[in-house]
Amino acid sequence: MQKLRQKVILGHLALLAGGALVGSLYDQVLIGLLVAALLGLGWHVRQLLRFEQALRDRHFGSLRYGDGIWSQLYSRFNYQRSQSKQYKKSYRQLLKEVRKSTNAMPDGGIILNRDFEIVLCNKAAQRLAGFRRHQDRGHRVDNILRDPAFGNYLNAGVFDKGIEIRSPTREGGWLLCRIVPYGADQLLLLIQDITERRRLAAMRRDFVANASHELRSPLTVVSGYLDTLAEEEDIPAHWQKPLMQMKTQASRMNKIVAELLELSRLEGAGAAPTDEIVDICGLLAAAKKSLAGRNDIPKIDIQCNSRAQLHGSTAEIESVIVNLMSNAIRHTPVEGQVTMTWASDRDGANLSVTDTGIGIEPEHIPRLTERFFRVDPGRSRDDGGVGLGLAIVKHVLERHEAKLQIESVPGSGSRFACHFPPGRIVAAEPVPIAGSSSI
What we know:
This protein is an alpha+beta fold and 439 residues long. The protein has four domains: 96 residues, no CATH class; 89 residues, Beta-Lactamase (2-Layer Sandwich); 71 residues, Helix Hairpins (Orthogonal Bundle), CATH 1.10.287; 162 residues, Heat Shock Protein 90. It has eleven helices and 14 strands. Strands 11-12-10-9-7-14 form a six-stranded mixed beta sheet, covered by helices on one side. The protein has a five-stranded antiparallel beta sheet with strand order 2-1-5-4-3, with helices on both faces.
Protein backbone atom coordinates (compact mmCIF):
# COMPACT_ATOMS: atom_id res chain seq x y z
CA MET A 1 0.00 0.00 0.00
CA GLN A 2 2.88 2.35 0.79
CA LYS A 3 4.45 1.67 -2.63
CA LEU A 4 1.13 2.34 -4.33
CA ARG A 5 0.86 5.71 -2.61
CA GLN A 6 4.36 6.60 -3.66
CA LYS A 7 3.58 5.52 -7.23
CA VAL A 8 0.43 7.66 -7.38
CA ILE A 9 2.20 10.71 -5.96
CA LEU A 10 5.18 10.31 -8.30
CA GLY A 11 2.84 9.83 -11.28
CA HIS A 12 1.00 13.07 -10.49
CA LEU A 13 4.27 14.92 -9.97
CA ALA A 14 5.51 13.59 -13.32
CA LEU A 15 2.31 14.72 -15.00
CA LEU A 16 2.66 18.21 -13.51
CA ALA A 17 6.35 18.31 -14.44
CA GLY A 18 5.49 17.33 -18.02
CA GLY A 19 2.82 20.03 -18.18
CA ALA A 20 5.27 22.60 -16.81
CA LEU A 21 7.89 21.52 -19.36
CA VAL A 22 5.47 21.79 -22.27
CA GLY A 23 4.26 25.15 -21.00
CA SER A 24 7.83 26.43 -20.69
CA LEU A 25 8.32 25.82 -24.41
CA TYR A 26 5.63 28.42 -25.00
CA ASP A 27 6.61 30.63 -22.05
CA GLN A 28 3.36 29.57 -20.27
CA VAL A 29 4.49 27.44 -17.34
CA LEU A 30 1.40 28.12 -15.16
CA ILE A 31 -0.95 27.28 -18.00
CA GLY A 32 0.96 24.06 -18.60
CA LEU A 33 0.65 23.14 -14.91
CA LEU A 34 -3.08 23.94 -14.94
CA VAL A 35 -3.71 21.87 -18.07
CA ALA A 36 -1.79 18.93 -16.56
CA ALA A 37 -3.77 19.20 -13.28
CA LEU A 38 -7.06 19.32 -15.20
CA LEU A 39 -6.05 16.27 -17.23
CA GLY A 40 -5.25 14.36 -14.01
CA LEU A 41 -8.51 15.48 -12.39
CA GLY A 42 -10.51 14.55 -15.48
CA TRP A 43 -8.99 11.09 -15.52
CA HIS A 44 -9.88 10.52 -11.86
CA VAL A 45 -13.44 11.80 -12.42
CA ARG A 46 -13.79 9.40 -15.33
CA GLN A 47 -12.56 6.49 -13.19
CA LEU A 48 -14.91 7.52 -10.38
CA LEU A 49 -17.87 7.57 -12.77
CA ARG A 50 -16.87 4.14 -14.14
CA PHE A 51 -16.67 2.80 -10.60
CA GLU A 52 -20.09 4.24 -9.76
CA GLN A 53 -21.53 2.70 -12.92
CA ALA A 54 -19.98 -0.63 -12.05
CA LEU A 55 -21.58 -0.44 -8.58
CA ARG A 56 -25.00 0.09 -10.13
CA ASP A 57 -24.57 -2.58 -12.82
CA ARG A 58 -22.69 -4.97 -10.50
CA HIS A 59 -20.22 -5.49 -13.36
CA PHE A 60 -16.59 -4.82 -12.53
CA GLY A 61 -14.94 -6.40 -15.57
CA SER A 62 -13.54 -3.10 -16.82
CA LEU A 63 -11.93 -2.41 -13.43
CA ARG A 64 -10.69 -5.91 -12.75
CA TYR A 65 -7.24 -5.56 -14.28
CA GLY A 66 -4.42 -3.06 -13.89
CA ASP A 67 -2.12 -1.89 -11.16
CA GLY A 68 -3.46 1.62 -10.64
CA ILE A 69 -5.15 2.95 -7.52
CA TRP A 70 -8.63 2.33 -8.93
CA SER A 71 -7.86 -1.32 -9.58
CA GLN A 72 -6.63 -1.55 -6.01
CA LEU A 73 -9.79 0.11 -4.77
CA TYR A 74 -11.83 -2.42 -6.71
CA SER A 75 -9.82 -5.32 -5.31
CA ARG A 76 -10.34 -4.09 -1.74
CA PHE A 77 -14.03 -3.44 -2.37
CA ASN A 78 -14.47 -6.89 -3.91
CA TYR A 79 -12.72 -8.49 -0.94
CA GLN A 80 -14.93 -6.67 1.53
CA ARG A 81 -18.01 -7.63 -0.47
CA SER A 82 -16.98 -11.29 -0.44
CA GLN A 83 -16.38 -11.11 3.31
CA SER A 84 -19.77 -9.47 3.79
CA LYS A 85 -21.46 -12.27 1.85
CA GLN A 86 -19.69 -14.83 3.98
CA TYR A 87 -20.69 -13.04 7.17
CA LYS A 88 -24.31 -12.82 6.02
CA LYS A 89 -24.30 -16.49 5.19
CA SER A 90 -22.84 -17.37 8.58
CA TYR A 91 -25.33 -15.05 10.29
CA ARG A 92 -28.28 -16.62 8.47
CA GLN A 93 -27.02 -20.08 9.40
CA LEU A 94 -26.56 -19.03 13.03
CA LEU A 95 -30.02 -17.43 13.11
CA LYS A 96 -31.49 -20.60 11.66
CA GLU A 97 -29.81 -22.70 14.34
CA VAL A 98 -30.96 -20.31 17.08
CA ARG A 99 -34.54 -20.50 15.84
CA LYS A 100 -34.35 -24.29 15.77
CA SER A 101 -33.03 -24.40 19.33
CA THR A 102 -35.56 -21.89 20.68
CA ASN A 103 -38.42 -23.67 18.95
CA ALA A 104 -37.26 -26.89 20.60
CA MET A 105 -37.53 -25.30 24.05
CA PRO A 106 -40.51 -26.43 26.16
CA ASP A 107 -40.80 -22.92 27.64
CA GLY A 108 -42.00 -19.86 25.79
CA GLY A 109 -39.61 -17.08 24.89
CA ILE A 110 -40.66 -13.63 23.64
CA ILE A 111 -38.21 -10.85 22.81
CA LEU A 112 -39.59 -7.41 23.71
CA ASN A 113 -38.31 -3.93 23.01
CA ARG A 114 -38.12 -1.27 25.71
CA ASP A 115 -41.79 -0.37 25.11
CA PHE A 116 -42.82 -3.99 25.80
CA GLU A 117 -43.65 -4.53 22.13
CA ILE A 118 -43.20 -8.01 20.66
CA VAL A 119 -40.17 -8.45 18.42
CA LEU A 120 -39.97 -12.23 18.14
CA CYS A 121 -41.42 -15.33 19.81
CA ASN A 122 -40.86 -19.07 19.62
CA LYS A 123 -43.34 -21.87 19.03
CA ALA A 124 -43.74 -22.65 22.73
CA ALA A 125 -44.96 -19.09 23.34
CA GLN A 126 -47.53 -19.58 20.61
CA ARG A 127 -48.70 -22.83 22.19
CA LEU A 128 -48.67 -21.73 25.84
CA ALA A 129 -49.99 -18.18 25.60
CA GLY A 130 -51.60 -17.89 22.17
CA PHE A 131 -49.00 -15.61 20.56
CA ARG A 132 -49.01 -15.33 16.78
CA ARG A 133 -45.54 -15.00 15.35
CA HIS A 134 -46.25 -12.54 12.54
CA GLN A 135 -49.60 -10.96 13.42
CA ASP A 136 -48.60 -9.94 16.96
CA ARG A 137 -45.22 -8.47 16.07
CA GLY A 138 -45.10 -4.82 17.11
CA HIS A 139 -48.01 -5.13 19.58
CA ARG A 140 -47.58 -4.63 23.31
CA VAL A 141 -47.31 -7.93 25.12
CA ASP A 142 -50.02 -7.02 27.65
CA ASN A 143 -52.47 -6.74 24.75
CA ILE A 144 -52.00 -10.50 24.35
CA LEU A 145 -51.64 -11.50 28.00
CA ARG A 146 -54.61 -9.56 29.35
CA ASP A 147 -54.16 -10.48 33.00
CA PRO A 148 -54.36 -7.46 35.37
CA ALA A 149 -51.59 -8.91 37.55
CA PHE A 150 -49.31 -9.19 34.53
CA GLY A 151 -50.08 -5.58 33.55
CA ASN A 152 -49.17 -4.43 37.06
CA TYR A 153 -45.98 -6.50 36.83
CA LEU A 154 -44.95 -4.66 33.66
CA ASN A 155 -45.84 -1.23 35.00
CA ALA A 156 -43.94 -1.80 38.25
CA GLY A 157 -40.73 -2.36 36.28
CA VAL A 158 -39.25 -4.60 38.99
CA PHE A 159 -38.35 -7.94 37.42
CA ASP A 160 -36.29 -9.63 40.15
CA LYS A 161 -38.89 -12.39 40.34
CA GLY A 162 -41.65 -13.82 38.18
CA ILE A 163 -45.43 -13.73 38.41
CA GLU A 164 -48.00 -16.50 38.12
CA ILE A 165 -51.05 -15.92 35.91
CA ARG A 166 -53.86 -18.02 34.50
CA SER A 167 -53.31 -19.50 31.06
CA PRO A 168 -55.26 -17.70 28.29
CA THR A 169 -55.33 -20.86 26.15
CA ARG A 170 -55.97 -23.66 28.65
CA GLU A 171 -58.82 -23.92 31.11
CA GLY A 172 -57.41 -24.34 34.61
CA GLY A 173 -53.85 -23.82 33.38
CA TRP A 174 -51.25 -21.61 35.05
CA LEU A 175 -48.19 -19.86 33.63
CA LEU A 176 -45.09 -18.48 35.32
CA CYS A 177 -43.94 -15.30 33.54
CA ARG A 178 -40.56 -13.72 34.16
CA ILE A 179 -38.79 -10.87 32.39
CA VAL A 180 -34.99 -10.63 32.18
CA PRO A 181 -32.77 -8.07 30.41
CA TYR A 182 -31.78 -9.14 26.91
CA GLY A 183 -29.45 -7.32 24.54
CA ALA A 184 -29.46 -3.56 24.07
CA ASP A 185 -32.78 -1.98 25.14
CA GLN A 186 -34.51 -5.35 24.91
CA LEU A 187 -36.19 -7.73 27.33
CA LEU A 188 -36.79 -11.46 27.25
CA LEU A 189 -40.13 -12.73 28.55
CA LEU A 190 -39.92 -16.36 29.63
CA ILE A 191 -43.16 -18.33 30.01
CA GLN A 192 -43.32 -21.68 31.80
CA ASP A 193 -46.30 -23.98 32.23
CA ILE A 194 -46.66 -24.60 35.98
CA THR A 195 -50.11 -26.19 35.92
CA GLU A 196 -48.83 -29.54 37.16
CA ARG A 197 -46.68 -27.95 39.82
CA ARG A 198 -49.63 -25.98 41.19
CA ARG A 199 -51.80 -29.09 41.10
CA LEU A 200 -49.23 -31.04 43.11
CA ALA A 201 -48.84 -28.15 45.55
CA ALA A 202 -52.61 -28.03 46.02
CA MET A 203 -52.69 -31.80 46.60
CA ARG A 204 -49.90 -31.52 49.17
CA ARG A 205 -51.63 -28.61 50.88
CA ASP A 206 -54.93 -30.45 51.01
CA PHE A 207 -53.26 -33.59 52.30
CA VAL A 208 -51.48 -31.71 55.08
CA ALA A 209 -54.67 -29.86 56.02
CA ASN A 210 -56.80 -33.02 56.03
CA ALA A 211 -54.20 -35.03 57.94
CA SER A 212 -53.84 -32.24 60.48
CA HIS A 213 -57.61 -32.08 60.97
CA GLU A 214 -57.75 -35.84 61.43
CA LEU A 215 -54.94 -35.75 63.98
CA ARG A 216 -56.56 -33.01 66.01
CA SER A 217 -59.39 -35.15 67.43
CA PRO A 218 -57.27 -38.07 68.72
CA LEU A 219 -54.70 -35.65 70.11
CA THR A 220 -57.43 -33.82 71.99
CA VAL A 221 -58.63 -37.10 73.49
CA VAL A 222 -55.10 -38.19 74.42
CA SER A 223 -54.29 -34.81 75.96
CA GLY A 224 -57.53 -34.88 77.95
CA TYR A 225 -56.84 -38.29 79.45
CA LEU A 226 -53.27 -37.31 80.23
CA ASP A 227 -54.45 -34.18 82.04
CA THR A 228 -56.92 -36.27 84.03
CA LEU A 229 -54.30 -38.83 84.97
CA ALA A 230 -51.82 -36.12 85.98
CA GLU A 231 -54.37 -34.72 88.43
CA GLU A 232 -54.92 -38.05 90.18
CA GLU A 233 -53.38 -38.09 93.67
CA ASP A 234 -52.85 -41.81 93.84
CA ILE A 235 -50.68 -42.07 90.71
CA PRO A 236 -47.54 -44.07 91.57
CA ALA A 237 -44.38 -41.99 91.74
CA HIS A 238 -42.68 -43.97 88.98
CA TRP A 239 -45.51 -42.96 86.57
CA GLN A 240 -45.32 -39.21 87.21
CA LYS A 241 -42.27 -38.60 85.01
CA PRO A 242 -43.60 -40.62 82.04
CA LEU A 243 -46.94 -38.78 82.32
CA MET A 244 -45.19 -35.41 82.21
CA GLN A 245 -43.18 -36.51 79.17
CA MET A 246 -46.34 -37.70 77.41
CA LYS A 247 -48.08 -34.40 78.20
CA THR A 248 -45.12 -32.46 76.82
CA GLN A 249 -45.04 -34.47 73.61
CA ALA A 250 -48.82 -34.27 73.20
CA SER A 251 -48.63 -30.49 73.64
CA ARG A 252 -45.83 -30.36 71.07
CA MET A 253 -47.89 -32.39 68.61
CA ASN A 254 -50.85 -30.08 69.14
CA LYS A 255 -48.61 -27.12 68.37
CA ILE A 256 -47.32 -28.77 65.18
CA VAL A 257 -50.86 -29.54 64.02
CA ALA A 258 -52.00 -25.98 64.72
CA GLU A 259 -49.06 -24.51 62.81
CA LEU A 260 -49.56 -26.90 59.88
CA LEU A 261 -53.21 -25.86 59.66
CA GLU A 262 -52.17 -22.21 59.78
CA LEU A 263 -49.65 -22.77 56.99
CA SER A 264 -52.26 -24.50 54.84
CA ARG A 265 -54.64 -21.60 55.37
CA LEU A 266 -51.98 -19.02 54.48
CA GLU A 267 -50.90 -20.88 51.32
CA GLY A 268 -54.46 -21.02 50.03
CA ALA A 269 -55.29 -17.40 50.87
CA GLY A 270 -54.80 -14.37 48.68
CA ALA A 271 -53.60 -10.91 49.66
CA ALA A 272 -54.21 -9.74 53.20
CA PRO A 273 -57.14 -7.33 53.74
CA THR A 274 -56.52 -3.60 53.62
CA ASP A 275 -59.55 -2.45 55.65
CA GLU A 276 -57.97 -3.35 59.01
CA ILE A 277 -55.40 -1.08 60.64
CA VAL A 278 -52.58 -2.81 62.52
CA ASP A 279 -50.89 -0.98 65.41
CA ILE A 280 -47.36 -2.36 65.23
CA CYS A 281 -46.05 -0.52 68.29
CA GLY A 282 -48.98 -1.84 70.34
CA LEU A 283 -48.27 -5.41 69.22
CA LEU A 284 -44.58 -5.06 70.09
CA ALA A 285 -45.46 -3.78 73.55
CA ALA A 286 -47.95 -6.63 74.08
CA ALA A 287 -45.37 -9.21 72.97
CA LYS A 288 -42.85 -7.82 75.44
CA LYS A 289 -45.42 -7.64 78.23
CA SER A 290 -46.28 -11.31 77.78
CA LEU A 291 -42.75 -12.17 78.90
CA ALA A 292 -42.63 -9.82 81.87
CA GLY A 293 -41.19 -11.35 85.04
CA ARG A 294 -39.17 -14.06 83.33
CA ASN A 295 -35.51 -14.17 84.27
CA ASP A 296 -34.52 -17.04 81.98
CA ILE A 297 -34.55 -14.97 78.79
CA PRO A 298 -32.28 -12.22 77.40
CA LYS A 299 -33.05 -8.54 77.79
CA ILE A 300 -35.66 -7.28 75.31
CA ASP A 301 -35.67 -3.71 73.96
CA ILE A 302 -38.41 -2.10 71.88
CA GLN A 303 -37.68 0.86 69.61
CA CYS A 304 -40.77 2.42 68.00
CA ASN A 305 -39.31 5.12 65.77
CA SER A 306 -42.53 5.79 63.88
CA ARG A 307 -46.25 6.16 64.52
CA ALA A 308 -47.01 4.68 61.12
CA GLN A 309 -49.48 1.83 61.10
CA LEU A 310 -50.14 -0.99 58.68
CA HIS A 311 -52.97 -2.16 56.44
CA GLY A 312 -53.34 -5.88 57.08
CA SER A 313 -54.32 -8.60 59.52
CA THR A 314 -53.58 -7.93 63.18
CA ALA A 315 -53.57 -11.63 64.10
CA GLU A 316 -51.14 -12.52 61.30
CA ILE A 317 -48.73 -9.67 62.03
CA GLU A 318 -48.87 -10.63 65.70
CA SER A 319 -47.81 -14.16 64.72
CA VAL A 320 -44.87 -12.68 62.78
CA ILE A 321 -43.74 -10.71 65.83
CA VAL A 322 -44.18 -13.65 68.21
CA ASN A 323 -42.37 -16.11 65.94
CA LEU A 324 -39.44 -13.79 65.26
CA MET A 325 -39.17 -12.84 68.93
CA SER A 326 -39.38 -16.48 70.10
CA ASN A 327 -36.79 -17.50 67.54
CA ALA A 328 -34.41 -14.75 68.70
CA ILE A 329 -34.91 -15.62 72.39
CA ARG A 330 -34.38 -19.32 71.69
CA HIS A 331 -30.96 -18.70 70.14
CA THR A 332 -29.72 -15.91 72.43
CA PRO A 333 -28.11 -16.53 75.84
CA VAL A 334 -29.63 -14.98 78.96
CA GLU A 335 -26.88 -12.37 79.14
CA GLY A 336 -27.59 -11.30 75.54
CA GLN A 337 -30.12 -8.85 74.09
CA VAL A 338 -33.03 -8.90 71.63
CA THR A 339 -34.08 -5.61 69.99
CA MET A 340 -37.40 -5.17 68.15
CA THR A 341 -37.61 -2.05 65.96
CA TRP A 342 -40.38 -0.40 63.94
CA ALA A 343 -39.41 2.43 61.56
CA SER A 344 -40.81 3.98 58.38
CA ASP A 345 -39.64 6.19 55.51
CA ARG A 346 -40.63 7.06 51.93
CA ASP A 347 -39.82 3.54 50.75
CA GLY A 348 -42.16 1.86 53.22
CA ALA A 349 -41.62 0.51 56.73
CA ASN A 350 -39.37 -2.02 58.44
CA LEU A 351 -40.11 -4.33 61.32
CA SER A 352 -36.86 -5.88 62.49
CA VAL A 353 -35.79 -8.24 65.26
CA THR A 354 -32.08 -8.20 66.10
CA ASP A 355 -30.34 -10.48 68.59
CA THR A 356 -26.85 -11.02 69.95
CA GLY A 357 -27.14 -14.80 69.84
CA ILE A 358 -25.18 -17.62 68.27
CA GLY A 359 -25.75 -16.47 64.68
CA ILE A 360 -26.31 -18.56 61.55
CA GLU A 361 -23.85 -19.96 59.05
CA PRO A 362 -24.25 -18.37 55.57
CA GLU A 363 -25.09 -21.68 53.84
CA HIS A 364 -28.13 -22.16 56.10
CA ILE A 365 -29.75 -18.74 55.55
CA PRO A 366 -31.49 -19.53 52.18
CA ARG A 367 -33.25 -22.54 53.76
CA LEU A 368 -34.45 -20.94 57.00
CA THR A 369 -38.02 -20.42 55.74
CA GLU A 370 -38.44 -24.04 54.62
CA ARG A 371 -40.86 -26.23 56.54
CA PHE A 372 -39.26 -28.20 59.39
CA PHE A 373 -35.78 -26.92 58.54
CA ARG A 374 -33.65 -26.51 61.66
CA VAL A 375 -30.00 -25.54 61.76
CA ASP A 376 -29.54 -27.63 64.93
CA PRO A 377 -32.36 -30.23 64.99
CA GLY A 378 -31.43 -31.73 68.36
CA ARG A 379 -31.33 -28.36 70.12
CA SER A 380 -34.58 -27.22 68.55
CA ARG A 381 -36.45 -30.30 69.79
CA ASP A 382 -35.18 -29.75 73.31
CA ASP A 383 -36.37 -26.15 73.49
CA GLY A 384 -39.68 -26.65 71.67
CA GLY A 385 -38.89 -25.47 68.17
CA VAL A 386 -40.54 -27.42 65.34
CA GLY A 387 -39.18 -25.57 62.30
CA LEU A 388 -42.46 -24.01 61.12
CA GLY A 389 -42.28 -20.52 62.63
CA LEU A 390 -40.23 -18.87 59.88
CA ALA A 391 -42.28 -20.63 57.19
CA ILE A 392 -45.38 -19.00 58.70
CA VAL A 393 -43.57 -15.65 58.79
CA LYS A 394 -42.69 -15.97 55.11
CA HIS A 395 -46.28 -16.69 54.00
CA VAL A 396 -47.76 -13.94 56.18
CA LEU A 397 -45.33 -11.42 54.69
CA GLU A 398 -46.18 -12.57 51.16
CA ARG A 399 -49.86 -11.92 51.91
CA HIS A 400 -48.86 -8.41 53.01
CA GLU A 401 -46.64 -7.83 49.92
CA ALA A 402 -43.63 -7.68 52.23
CA LYS A 403 -40.16 -9.23 52.06
CA LEU A 404 -38.04 -10.94 54.71
CA GLN A 405 -34.35 -10.11 54.78
CA ILE A 406 -32.01 -12.16 56.97
CA GLU A 407 -28.53 -11.07 58.01
CA SER A 408 -26.34 -13.02 60.40
CA VAL A 409 -22.77 -13.30 61.61
CA PRO A 410 -21.90 -16.59 63.31
CA GLY A 411 -21.10 -15.94 66.96
CA SER A 412 -22.33 -12.33 66.85
CA GLY A 413 -26.09 -12.52 66.26
CA SER A 414 -28.76 -12.19 63.58
CA ARG A 415 -31.18 -9.65 62.17
CA PHE A 416 -34.57 -10.51 60.66
CA ALA A 417 -36.08 -7.51 58.85
CA CYS A 418 -39.58 -7.37 57.36
CA HIS A 419 -39.92 -4.65 54.72
CA PHE A 420 -43.47 -3.48 53.94
CA PRO A 421 -44.17 -1.48 50.75
CA PRO A 422 -45.55 2.11 50.90
CA GLY A 423 -48.99 0.94 49.75
CA ARG A 424 -49.43 -1.01 52.98
CA ILE A 425 -48.43 1.86 55.27
CA VAL A 426 -50.76 4.27 57.07
CA ALA A 427 -48.36 7.21 56.99
CA ALA A 428 -47.48 9.22 60.06
CA GLU A 429 -44.69 11.56 61.06
CA PRO A 430 -41.67 9.83 62.64
CA VAL A 431 -41.56 10.19 66.41
CA PRO A 432 -38.13 10.09 68.07
CA ILE A 433 -37.94 7.94 71.19
CA ALA A 434 -35.88 9.28 74.04
CA GLY A 435 -34.96 5.84 75.30
CA SER A 436 -35.91 2.20 74.91
CA SER A 437 -37.50 0.00 77.55
CA SER A 438 -36.13 -3.37 78.59
CA ILE A 439 -36.90 -6.35 80.72
